[in-house]
Backbone:
């Protein structure tokens, strides 16, 4: 979608910097970092898994994971998104969280309480949905689960539009931006990969 | 301990009633006084919103701690430590930060004098080299954190360190005393500099309060052998 497609919920200016500068820098810097090494040319997920090193992060991890996380984030949103999901996804959310509202609250709380920079996720593992929060560049791939949805809670994701008001940003994301279609198709892929 | 005079019993009650809560210190200068290095918009948000929130949440955590201690709920006492570290650290670090900065007309940016000046030259080669080291380490912090110029009281050495999130400098060594801290959380520069953290770091030196750093340095140097 174009840079202004998520207005007024996420401004064009935010996208210009977030995608055009931050995300681009992770990609460009990763390329420089792996040039000439055995990681050069490898798929992004391979680089991420091989540099996580059980939390004792190797240098390319931050750029690689952030490149992955941001692409996943853009695809987690759509113009005219948000609201409640339906069908199988809703049924599973109701199964694993008791109600959509409980999931909503838990996801919001995770995103609001991730201290400093990081991400909140809906993830799938062992046939269950769960909410996870991670610091800095860490994502559920390295924790052994399938990411389904994410919200970026690094300050650069919301500062231009919301300043310090992270809870307002999270609500806006949930009410107006989430692409449940993307989440559903990721869920299908996760279930297929698990069976 | 308190003595119940009526029954003659003593009770091991922590004297938490007199526990002082934290409060937001006033900024020592006007909100626009650090322009153009740091904008008024940033100073207002940073002080009145971010620092205030740390103070508020720190006091809430202390309140919960008081209850947990009073009821002997040790598992809650331990669980509260991360809230105390995040928010208390945020309060402590920012209280230092406002003193680390000064308007140009009040000495901001003016290089330090001896003895700090000679100590910097001895450890880093020159003031410029210290600033470069701070800038490169500050730029390299992943996510949120601080870059510090500090004094190791025990080893009698000047150091440059970084800490993550709101971890105070002592988390890197109990003998470390902060002389200058620079906030590299995105909220410290984003409205003005956006993603250009390196430019923020370059410009902030024009309002760094070396007089404060010198005072702290000299205070800890008194009584020590020659540095």
Residues:
């Amino acid at each position: 979608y174009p840079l202004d497609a998520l207005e007024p919920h996420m401004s064009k200016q935010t996208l210009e910097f977030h995608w055009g500068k931050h995300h681009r820098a992770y990609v460009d810097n990763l390329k420089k970092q792996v040039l000439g090494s055995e990681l050069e040319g490898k798929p992004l997920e391979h680089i991420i898994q091989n540099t996580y090193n059980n939390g004792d992060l190797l240098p390319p991890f931050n750029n690689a994971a952030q490149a992955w996380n941001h692409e996943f984030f853009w695809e987690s949103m759509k113009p005219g998104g948000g609201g409640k999901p339906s069908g199988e996804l809703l049924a599973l959310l109701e199964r694993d969280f008791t109600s959509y509202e409980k999931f909503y609250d838990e996801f919001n709380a995770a995103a609001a309480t991730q201290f400093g920079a990081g991400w909140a996720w809906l993830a799938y593992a062992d046939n269950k949905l769960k909410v996870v929060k991670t610091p800095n560049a860490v994502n559920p791939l390295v924790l052994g689960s399938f990411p389904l949805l994410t919200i970026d809670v690094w300050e650069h994701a919301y500062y231009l539009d919301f300043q310090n008001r992270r809870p307002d940003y999270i609500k806006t994301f949930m009410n107006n931006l989430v692409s449940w279609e993307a989440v559903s198709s990721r869920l299908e892929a996760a279930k297929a990969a698990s069976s | 301990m308190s003595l119940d005079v009526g029954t003659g019993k003593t009770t091991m009650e922590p004297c938490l009633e007199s526990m002082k809560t934290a409060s937001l210190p006033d900024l020592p200068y006007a909100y626009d006084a650090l322009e153009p290095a740091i904008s008024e918009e940033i100073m207002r948000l940073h002080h009145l919103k971010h620092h205030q929130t740390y103070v508020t949440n720190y006091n809430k955590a202390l309140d919960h701690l008081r209850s947990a201690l009073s009821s002997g709920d040790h598992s809650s006492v331990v669980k509260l430590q991360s809230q105390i570290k995040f928010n208390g650290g945020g309060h402590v670090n920012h209280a230092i930060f406002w003193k680390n900065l000064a308007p140009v007309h009040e000495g901001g940016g003016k290089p330090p004098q001896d003895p700090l000046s000679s100590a910097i030259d001895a450890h880093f080669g020159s003031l410029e080299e210290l600033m470069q080291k701070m800038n490169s380490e500050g730029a390299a912090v992943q996510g949120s954190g601080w870059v510090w110029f500090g004094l190791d009281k025990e080893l009698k050495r000047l150091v440059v360190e970084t800490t993550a999130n709101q971890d105070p400098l002592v988390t890197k060594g109990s003998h470390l005393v902060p002389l200058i801290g620079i906030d590299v959380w995105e909220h410290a520069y984003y409205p003005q500099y956006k993603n250009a953290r390196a430019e923020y770091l370059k410009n902030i030196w024009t309002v760094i309060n070396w007089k404060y750093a010198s005072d702290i340095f000299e205070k800890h140097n008194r009584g020590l052998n020659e540095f």
